[in-house]
Specification:
With 457 residues, this protein is of the alpha/beta class. Helices cover 35% and strands 19% of the residues. The chain has three domains: 110 residues, no CATH class; 229 residues, Rossmann fold (3-Layer(aba) Sandwich); 85 residues. The chain is globular and about 105 Å long.
């Protein structure tokens, strides 16, 4: 049997065997049964996918004899190929976010990781350009968000470097066009190993295939299209919860069986801060509040010229040159303040009040209250409405109401009206009140007209 070697913590098979004395150099080879190809580690330590014919040539060069001698059914070269195919199969071969090149056991699967993230080497120094970018983007007069960002970045970088499965919130950067959001995402990518992938189409159900996401530690979304339905926003929220919390993720490549692996991911999402663009974000219900951080970005002058292509290239080169100093500062000189620490994510989430206000205005229960006001209180009303959620829904979706079609889409699932009334009772208790008595075998609700928000009932 071929020997097993350990190289920098990575186990791999060595194709040695019966070769002529003094000829050939043992190489590491695995068989990828999903792609029906071989993976060969060359003298530079790079993994190369090979056909059977290409591996045959490689083994001949290493000294394996292909010609049959008298009495032999298989040549030494044929024997080596069969041994690799039978004894050194892997379930998956390719990049795997958060893992270094070599053979690993991942969630019960034998995996050949073919490339590694390239982490920034910390070095003590100054980082004035990065500091200026962060100050311009995140340090507002009313809210300085930099500590929240530093905490998110520090926890993620430390977990990746330690090869630990540490969940992290989705980082949302909302702000005007060309304010530096994409630049900050590029900085995040460099700190997290230099590899990124685009998850939006998979997260929104456009494609069921996601194998490309497993090649990047940083999953990047930028200015993607807003959703047109509440159901789509909720589905997107479910994907966010899955990708931020669950260790095991389903890799599904086209034409191949799905596989459960454990990648390391951090997700960031940059978008414009207008209400229609914020429709790309899920409703902020209790199940997602702690899994998403919302940063409001502002447009500030960049610390170096960045208008022309050459200027942008020079600016980015200067930013990259400062990354070792910034990473050193994060790791050695700065600690997460006690008030920002969180057990599950290492750092607590951050929600800028303005973004919360904008998203709350898009919440389904707020939309429902708007339709209720248009239906019941469009003209001066003598008092409050009283009845069941089912009766209210019938009135809202009736043919005579001018917003009936929109209300029907909003209330398109069972008991939606009752659920949203319950949320409104918690948010605006002086407008919507749950009655103790039941009305026609259903719970009764009392809804007061606008203008009574400050009147206790």
């Amino acid at each position: 049997m071929p020997a097993i070697i350990q190289n920098a913590g990575e186990a791999a098979a060595v194709v040695s065997g019966e070769i002529e004395a003094g000829k050939g150099i043992p190489r590491q080879v695995f068989y990828d049964r999903a792609k029906s190809c071989f993976w060969y580690c060359n003298s530079a330590g790079c993994w190369i996918a090979m056909t059977k014919d290409a591996l045959t040539s490689r083994l001949k060069r290493d000294g394996y004899r292909r010609k049959l001698n008298d009495g032999e059914a298989l040549s030494p070269l044929d024997i080596r190929q069969l041994e690799v195919m039978e004894d050194y199969q892997v379930s998956y071969a390719g990049p795997l976010a958060g893992h270094w090149a070599g053979l690993v056991e991942n969630n019960g699967n034998r995996i050949l990781v073919t490339s590694s993230p390239k982490l920034v080497t910390p070095a003590k120094g100054e980082w004035p350009l990065i500091d200026a970018v962060l100050r311009g983007l995140l340090a507002h007069e009313d809210h300085d968000q930099r500590a929240h960002f530093h905490g998110w970045m520090k926890v993620g970088e430390a977990a990746l470097r330690a090869r630990q499965a540490q969940p992290g919130q989705v980082l949302v950067l909302a702000g005007p066009r060309e304010c530096g959001k994409s630049l900050l995402q590029s900085i995040i990518t460099e700190i997290l190993g230099g590899r990124s992938a685009k998850p939006f189409q998979y997260m929104t159900g456009v494609t069921p295939f996601n194998s490309d996401l497993f090649a990047g530690e940083h999953l990047v979304m930028e200015d993607d299209q807003p959703f047109t339905t509440l159901a789509a926003r909720r589905d997107f929220g479910s994907r966010i919860k899955d990708m931020t919390v669950n260790r095991d993720q389903r890799l599904h490549a086209k034409g191949r069986d799905a596989l459960i692996l454990r990648p390391f991911w951090r997700v960031s999402f940059s978008l414009n801060d207008e209400s229609e663009n914020l429709m790309a974000l899920p409703p902020l219900d209790e199940s997602i509040m702690d899994k998403i951080s919302l940063f409001l970005c502002r447009k500030a002058e960049m610390p170096m010229p960045s208008v022309t292509s050459d200027e942008r290239a020079q600016f980015w080169a200067a930013i990259r040159a400062e990354l070792p100093a910034y990473v050193h500062w994060l790791r050695e000189e700065w600690t997460v303040p006690p008030e920002l620490r969180a057990h599950r994510f290492g750092v607590t989430h951050w929600h800028h009040p303005r973004i919360v206000e904008e998203i709350s205005g898009l919440a389904p229960e707020v939309q429902l209250l708007g339709y209720v006001d248009a239906l019941l209180f469009d003209s001066p009303a003598p008092g409050a409405w009283w009845g069941s959620a089912e009766e209210l829904q019938r009135q809202l979706t009736g043919g005579d109401f001018r917003f009936a079609r929109q209300a029907e889409r909003l209330l398109g699932w069972s008991n939606a009206c009752g659920v949203y009334l319950g949320r409104l009772a918690g948010k605006v208790p002086n407008r919507v009140k749950r009655e103790d008595a039941h009305h026609r075998a259903h719970r009764a609700w009392r809804i007061y007209p606008p203008g009574h928000e400050d009147t206790p009932y």
